[in-house]
Design a protein that fits this description.
By secondary structure, this protein is of the alpha+beta class. The chain has 2 domains: 93 residues, Winged helix-like DNA-binding domain superfamily/Winged helix DNA-binding domain (Arc Repressor Mutant, subunit A), CATH 1.10.10.10; 166 residues, Endonuclease Chain A (Endonuclease, Chain A), CATH 3.30.870. It contains 11 helices and 9 strands. The strands form 2 sheets. Strands 4-9-8-7-5-6 form a 6-stranded mixed β-sheet, sandwiched between helices. A 3-stranded antiparallel β-sheet has the order 1-3-2. Helix 1 crosses helix 2 and helix 3 packs across helix 4. The longest helix has 32 residues. The radius of gyration is 28 Å and the shape is elongated. InterPro entries: ArsR-like_HTH, TrmB-like, Tscrpt_reg_TrmB_N, WH-like_DNA-bd_sf, WH_DNA-bd_sf. Pfam families: TrmB.
Length: 272
């Protein structure tokens, strides 16, 4: 019930209108008094909402005293709403003012629904190339959109984490202020048509955060990072035993040269 009411509100109906429509659909037909009594709300509010719904054509008012109301059947209702939504979308698309160029900016997204919704919309508009650096669990959430992109002829370049094969995981840099960093998440990044990118983290508690931008600097950084990951992966596959003999497993010795310890741990040593 709550999901149905939520979707009706998403389509532009008020909470009162949504509840009335669901109640009428369940009863078949009812008077305004009966609806108000069932919902536990004032009759004046119910009659005002019924009048709006009747004028818009979603509800029919029968003859008699008291008047009895009924909502369109689901097929008719969906068809009417769809037609009006499409008409409004076409009008907005054609009449919305188109301003000058907008400077690239960064914006943040929070919540799995917002992040996945943004990704789905962008993946569906990809024309030439999608570069994906993601864990398999996250890739599975977008499987349909990625498959559809390939069917359209879009080139997909993949880097997977979280499996037996894939890019070499990079170590996390410790925070400078001594505060503990969240380590229970999985990073992901997407670059679409070399002009749009998303970089984010999905945590084990279900929360998701991401940064989205069309700024060419971050796009280039993510593409370079992807290239370096894949080059290192191929080198490890071809020369794994020799690299491990010289540098240690997963290049640990090399990492330690560049990934500094927390600067607050040994201030005197760092000062030197």
């Amino acid at each position: 019930m709550e999901q149905l009411l939520l979707h009706l509100r998403n389509l532009g109906f008020t909470e009162m209108e949504s509840k009335i429509m669901v109640e009428l659909a369940a009863k078949g037909q009812a008077s305004g008094y009966e609806v108000a009594k069932q919902l536990g709300v004032s009759r004046s509010n119910v009659y005002a909402a019924l009048q709006r719904l009747t004028q818009q054509g979603y509800v029919r008012c029968g003859e008699g005293e008291p008047a009895r109301y009924s909502v369109l059947n689901p097929d008719e209702l969906a068809l009417m709403i769809s037609g009006r939504v499409q008409a409004s979308l076409h009008f907005v698309e054609s009449e919305m003012p188109r301003g000058g160029p907008v400077s690239p900016s960064f914006y943040n997204l929070e919540g799995e629904r917002n992040v996945l919704g943004t990704l789905v919309r962008q993946l569906n508009t990809a024309k030439r190339e999608i570069v994906v650096d993601v864990w398999r669990e996250e890739a599975s959430l977008l499987r349909n959109e990625l498959e559809q992109a390939e069917l359209r002829g879009v080139k997909l370049l993949w880097a997977f984490d979280g499996g037996n094969a894939g890019p070499i995981p990079y170590p996390a840099w410790p925070p400078l202020n001594g505060s503990a960093a969240r380590k229970d998440g999985r990073k992901f990044s997407f670059v679409i048509d070399r002009s749009w990118c998303m970089l984010g983290m999905r945590y084990e508690d279900g929360s998701v955060q991401a940064v989205v931008t069309e700024h060419p600097v971050l796009v280039e950084l993510l593409l370079n990072h992807f290239t370096q990951e894949m080059v290192l992966f191929e080198l490890e596959q071809d020369m794994g035993p020799e690299l491990e003999r010289r540098y240690g497993e997963r290049y640990g010795n090399i990492y330690r040269k560049y990934v500094m310890h927390d600067l607050d741990e040994n201030p005197e040593e760092n000062a030197e």
